[in-house]
Structures are given as structure tokens and as C-alpha cells.
User: What shape does this take?
Amino acid sequence: MKLFKKVMAVGLASTMVLSMAACGGAEKETTAAPATTAAETKAEETKAEETTAAEAAETTAAEVAAAAGDFDASNTTVGISIYKFDDNFMTLYRTELERYLVEELGFKKENITIQDGKGDQAEQSNQIDNFITSGVDVLILNLVQASSAPQITDKCKDAGIPVVYINREPDVDEEERWKAEGLQATYVGCDARQSGTFQGEEILETANKGDINGDGKVSYIMIQGDPENVDAQYRTEFSVKALTDAGMEVNELFKQRGDWDQAKGQQLTQDALTQFGEEVEVVFCNNDAMALGALQAIEAAGRKVNEDIYLVGVDALTEAVQNVLDGKMTGTVFNDHMAQAKAAADIAVQYLKGEAVEPVNMVDYRKVTPDNAQEVLDALK
Ligand code: GAL
Assistant: This one.
């Protein structure tokens, strides 16, 4: 696969040269000979640039075409980095990603390296540098900090390695840059606004629309993921927005970061229940791991889900879906790790075949309520 990587690097360089020449902004590092006027120099430079660009474009098109038929999954290397292994949802995701690459696409297990970013961007950046030095053919990255995407994308570009970001979405400016500069970088994920909206709708679908005590407002606590993560921001915002859009008055009693973690979800819910007691009508958790923790705290406080308190999460971890079926959680939202893993792997292959890729690729979330929980559970097995 080495030839192909080189070809793609040339392709990118020529695209950039072409666009620079087109805007007349091409710069040369060499200085003009003293006897030549500035205008002459400029004209010569422009001509030289155009020739180089044309030659490069010609070579690239031919090489890309030749290399396109060259893709062979069995000798292609993949570098994968997960923001941290100690995360229930990302564990499901990475297991499925590896299974799909090997079992469905024919990659060799020994050609796939998956590393644990351990929640530390510096550590993860080192791992990525090593992947680049070792010359992997493609990278699939779940960044610790999505804000590091610009630097990492530039390193991948320089090395001619396509990169598929998953789960932690870089910002819109960065995604637009990939498109504008023709970079081989893309994002595969879900639109977290949708999951937040679904959580709010699940509360609206209850008998009293979340207003258990009938005082005219929904009093809730919000257990957030990592607030730097757009999933946490959007779920927090849009779950509540669904209520207010439906004309409900809301009362936020408590909002704290639980970093996607079950033990923190339990502790925070316990704190909130101690402080606000019966006042708490709804517990919004940005994910299921924290909702499982919240359920432990709710049960320990002698409260009963769907009777005197509502509880919703996101992800559709098996245990959470079973809780929905058993009436111990009001609902969750399926964060489809299977469809996301498939999309990420398929898109990596598209790059390796020289095909065009969109900068953003979204998979739909799905509401999980008692009505379809069994079906979702069966699909997860
Ligand atoms: C979210 C997921 C969380 C956590 C997070 C990591 O999409 O719902 O459980 O895995 O990604 O970035």
C-alpha cells in the first residue's frame, strides 16, 4: 500500500498547487537572478508553477487510477486510537470496528493496531506520531480533545495518510477546511442534537410530561458527560429544549459533570437527591453509564423510576435497554455503534481506493422506549 499513499500525497500537493496558481498566490522560495525584472520573474514563476501543476495532475490521475485497483485489505495497515479504553460505549464501538474490519472487510487482525489514549491528549498525540512514523495506510481516530484535530490533520496530510475521525466531533471550521483544502480527513458520528431531543421527547411521552407533582414545571437534574465534548453540550441543551419547545416550564435544580462515568453518575445523583429530595422529577444523564449509576442512587434513596421520578440516558447499553424493558429506566437512545463502526471502516476503504469522501458522515440515533426495547435488545445480541 506504500505506493498508493505516495500517490495520494502527490494528489494533494497538486491540488494545492493548482488552487494556489489559480488564485495567483503561488509563492516561490528561490530568489530571482539580479538581472531579471520583477515582472519577468513573476511571469516565469507563474509559467513554472502551471507546468508543474499540469504535470503533477497528469501523473496523479494516472497513478490514482492504477492504484485504485491495487487495494488489498489483507495487506493494508490500520492505526486506531480510542480516547480511552475505560469507556463502556467506546469499548463496544472498538470491538465492533475491529470485528467488522477483519470479518467483513478481510483485513488481517495483526495489521490493525488499536491504542488506548488513556484520556490524555499528549499521550494520544505521541501514539499518532508513532503510527505516522511506522507508515500505517489509514488512521481511525477517536480524539481525546477534538480541538487537536487541526494539528493532527496537518501531520496526516504531510504524511499522505487519510484520517477518519470518529465519535468526538471536531468543530465546523475544521470540517469546512478539510473540504476547502481537499484534505483526506473526515468525521463519522451522530448528530448529538438528535439524541438530546429524543431524551426530551421520552419525558414528554410520559403520562404527566415529566411534571410528576403537578406544580406546572419540570424540575430536573442534569448529569453531564465531558463538557468539552459536543455530545455532552448538545444533549444537555436539546433535551431541555424539547421540553420548552413543547411549552413546558422547566426548573434546573442541579447540573454537574460526570465525565461519562458510572461511579460519578451515582455520586452526583446521590448528592442531588440528598440536596433536593422529592423536588427532583427528572434525571437527565448524557449517557447510559451515568444513568446506570443514577439508578443505583435512585434505588438507594427509596425512589421508584416511572412512579415518582423519571430517568433517561443515551447509548443503549444492553443493561440500560433491559432496564427500560423492566421499567427501571424511562428510556434511552440508541447510539448505533454498529452502524458507526461500519461507516468508519467503509470510509477508510473508500480513501484507500481513491474514492471521494464527504467531510461529515452522520448516522441516525433511535429512541428506545418500552415499546421497542426488546427489538433493540435482540439487535444488540
Ligand atoms: C458518546 C457516548 C458516551 C461516551 C462518549 C465518548 O457518544 O454517548 O457514552 O462514550 O461518546 O466520547
Q: What stands out?
A: The chain is about 50% helix and 15% strand. The pocket of beta-D-galactopyranose is lined by residues 83, 87, 89-90, 167-168, 225, 229, 231, 260, 287, 289, 314-315, 335 (CB under 6 Å). Residues 2-66 have pLDDT under 50 and may be disordered. The radius of gyration is 25 Å.
